[in-house]
Amino acid sequence: MPHIALLHETDWSGWRQAARHLALANVEPDDVTWSVGGTGDELPEASGGFSLPRALVDLAALAIQAREKERFGLLYSLVWRAHGGEKVIDDTTDPDLVLARRLALSVRAEAHRMRTSLRFMPVEAADGRTRQAPRYLGWYAPLHFVLPANAQLIARRFPDLTWSIVTPDGAAHWGTWRNPQEGNTQEGNPQELRFGAGKRSIEDDATLRAWWDQFGADLLADATPGTSVPEAEALDERPRPPDLPPLGPVVVEGARDPVLARTAREAMNCERCPLYAPATQTVFGEGPRGAGVMFIGEQPGDQEDVIGRPFVGPAGQVMDRAMEEAGIDRRTVYVTNAVKHFKFTPRGKRRIHQNPDVSEIEVCNFWLDKEREAVRPKLLVILGGSAARAVMRRAVTISRERGRPITLPDGQMAFVTVHPSYLLRLPDEAAKRREYAAFVRDLRAVAELMAAM
Ligand code: URA
Ligand code: SF4
Questions:
Q1: 279 ligand 2 Cβ < 6 A
Q2: Ligand 2 pocket mutation, candidates 280, 298, 341, 343, criterion most atoms within 8 A of CB
Q3: 296 or 95, which is more confident?
Q4: Which of 421, 424, 425, 439 to mutate to test the pocket of ligand 1 (most atoms within 8 A of CB)?
Q5: How far is the CA of 36 from the centre of ligand 2 (A)?
Q6: pLDDT band at residue 249 under the 50/70/90 scheme
Q7: Under 8 Å CB-to-CB from 164, ≥6 apart: which residues?
Q8: What is the pTM of this model?
Q9: What ligand has the least distance to the C-alpha of 418?
Q10: Of 53, 340, 350, 398, which sits most exposed with the smallest number of CB within 10 A?
Q11: Which residues are near ligand 1 (CB < 6 Å)?
Q12: Does residue 415 carry a pLDDT above 70?
């Protein structure tokens, strides 16, 4: 029974190479064991190659980042079956495929969460440079092994800053390093992403800062270069500094305010209207309690229903992009929906979105009102007709009322715009571009209102 030892948790090329050799040598999935670290057996001799459906490779590249021990074997079994001629990727009821897709979706959601909830604090750059900009330091405990793949994206987003993201599994550092051949000047050296040891937990910013003051310089000196997504090869298992015991599973406490967290827990058991029954879970709002602005959508979509977080699917991605273009930092706003359960009709294996009824919107206002009471936003951004119905308690013609601040009878300031799903549904490219630009314009007006608040 071959045993495969991978180099680290996201050893994508190691796993791929092993899967290729094993499948070519026709080794059954049940006959292989996998570990991270340790000593493995030689790979079986294999000649030739085979190709896999692109969708399967993409799925595996995501799912391999899941914090799930069985993932290497599960993904190998899909590869083995595809190599045997099965069209595994097309059978959406296949239990192995369903599991792999769940892992992949969960990884995607976690990657998104990391990118939207990371907070950085400036620390002195511990790399011995004089007269320099600070290093930005952030700590985050990801549910999955999403750091290597996403550090690359973050580097592209903040190329001009020097930063380190520390997690319990390891740290990623972006900056310039001295070139040993050229003495100690860093001028002109290219910026580079390196990986090294992490930190298991922090109590607060002060402990993180103190830890950085003590270990930062050594961590940077020991960090090694990484490669591009998803091949984070260089994230090798380095000896950890002495205060870091080996890792068990990481339990992530949401950074939610206690009042909102309690309300969200209550909403998990809500049966006030019939929508709870066929849906997977209640999808509650997210964001800081003191947010000045609350974005209100309609209801969770198919992906939000599975993942349990608002606006993480296709509409959420459009919204993220538009917010970024308008200069709105999603981490600073509260994002929620008028209705907290996904309403759909099954069609074959798909679940088709259905608009909520007025009665469902009215009943679910119970939760939106609680969110509004807790957050007390100065401005409500109403995305589309269902949200408008929930907040304004009447039918609203979006095209007539969009794009300018409105004062509601109770004094609340609101701003109506379209729902991002509307942009996705437009049939032709020209209309899509035009309407997307109008949406960004509306969000810029929101950004201006925020700046004046
Ligand atoms: N559409 C919404 O209105 N809300 C979501 O969370 C996702 C899609
Ligand atoms: Fe409760 Fe709203 Fe879900 Fe209806 S849609 S069950 S009111 S949380």
A1: no
A2: 341
A3: 296
A4: 421
A5: 43
A6: very low
A7: 135, 136, 137, 138, 171, 172, 173, 174, 212, 216, 219, 220
A8: 0.54
A9: 1
A10: 350
A11: 297-301, 304, 310-311, 313, 315-316, 337, 421
A12: yes
Lowest mean pLDDT of 280-284, 324-328, 340-344, name the range.
Answer: 280-284
Residues 6+ apart with CB under 8 A from 222: 196, 197, 238
Question: Could you tell me which of 146, 138, 192 has the C-alpha nearest to residue 169?
Answer: 146
pLDDT at 256: 63
pLDDT at 46: 83
**Residues with Cβ within 8 Å of residue 85, at least 6 apart in sequence:** none
Residue 227 has pLDDT above 50, yes or no: no
Lowest mean pLDDT among 202-216, 319-333, 377-391, 413-427: 202-216
pLDDT at residue 132 in the model: 59
Are β-strands 379-383 and 413-417 bridged in parallel, bridged antiparallel, or unpaired?
parallel
Q: What is the 403 CA–ligand 1 centroid distance (Å)?
A: 20
